[in-house]
């Protein structure tokens, strides 16, 4: 009789922006510009033997009702520049950046990512995102943005072009010219960077739409997702993994990693109290109204955040916040929030707190380790992208308290067995296509 071995899980650390989930005042290193902030979180992630460190991207400061309302991820240095610097102060940790394919060109970006892969000895990752946001497009020479229907076709051609560039050097170090002419890109010439240690940097994708899931199955090595329950996670996991076969891929070729938060306490009750206090701090009265206005598409500044939700319906075609991707139908969201508010007797602020809280592990270090292991063993994830509440020091607590318990359970590494991000993730080296 054989005993099933526990499934190993993967961990990554996200450096959030200044708005939203991050609280900076609790940390002695509290700047989203100072390199020390990024170095601290990256070194902590490497000490915890994480697979990779992840940076989001913002290409324009968001505006709400015509005024800049937060810095978010746009108020800090460019991501690949940061990761090249972090490559010098880390040894094994993967380094992944979000880069938008709607406002970049394949040759230039393939060169930057290949350079990062060389300088880090094979630790580069690329989170592929698209944009249908004309407001952001105003920062670029061609203005506007691709039509929504073209977003994924452009992204697919972008990745195919980048991979052709990465494969244009032979394994023995000889450059070969490429001649590619497609719907969106035409490239003719020679790539200036030899084939990098990983062959291709790891490709990451996030998106819950049907198009996004299909794109992940076709192109991605890692997929980020947001799901608030085990059942929702299992459904997403099963659906995306089932799509891989159509592209000649195995389930192990794609790692699914939900973005999650965590709150630790000496007891589960203490952790729940702490989590409630954190969310109360994150969603101030002013921010609660701002979030409500983003859904309603109306100026709601006259409403009391501690009062009931508006009786008026949203204006579905009005965007008061520029630079923010709207997800879901506003009328459906409003109906869901009203039902939640009525069922629990919640105010505007309380409703926003409860409705916008994503997947979070709350409890003692032991209960969180157990819950994470269960999530993976029950087919809801291959690992997790951790989003700390406090930046950058909050991850230290997880590394010191939860990681040893995951190792004790046999579901997390006790040392790095490889040197590249692909090795950490258990992904095969891309076969050179000559």
UniProtKB/TrEMBL annotation:
<protein>
    <submittedName>
        <fullName>NtaA/DmoA family FMN-dependent monooxygenase</fullName>
        <ecNumber>1.14.-.-</ecNumber>
    </submittedName>
</protein>
<keyword id="KW-0503">Monooxygenase</keyword>
<keyword id="KW-0560">Oxidoreductase</keyword>
<feature type="domain" description="Luciferase-like">
    <location>
        <begin position="29"/>
        <end position="380"/>
    </location>
</feature>
<dbReference type="GO" id="GO:0004497">
    <property type="term" value="F:monooxygenase activity"/>
</dbReference>
<dbReference type="InterPro" id="IPR036661">
    <property type="entry name" value="Luciferase-like_sf"/>
</dbReference>
<dbReference type="Pfam" id="PF00296">
    <property type="entry name" value="Bac_luciferase"/>
</dbReference>
<keyword id="KW-0288">FMN</keyword>
<dbReference type="InterPro" id="IPR016215">
    <property type="entry name" value="NTA_MOA"/>
</dbReference>
<dbReference type="InterPro" id="IPR011251">
    <property type="entry name" value="Luciferase-like_dom"/>
</dbReference>
<dbReference type="InterPro" id="IPR051260">
    <property type="entry name" value="Diverse_substr_monoxygenases"/>
</dbReference>
<comment type="similarity">
    <text>Belongs to the NtaA/SnaA/DszA monooxygenase family.</text>
</comment>
<keyword id="KW-0285">Flavoprotein</keyword>
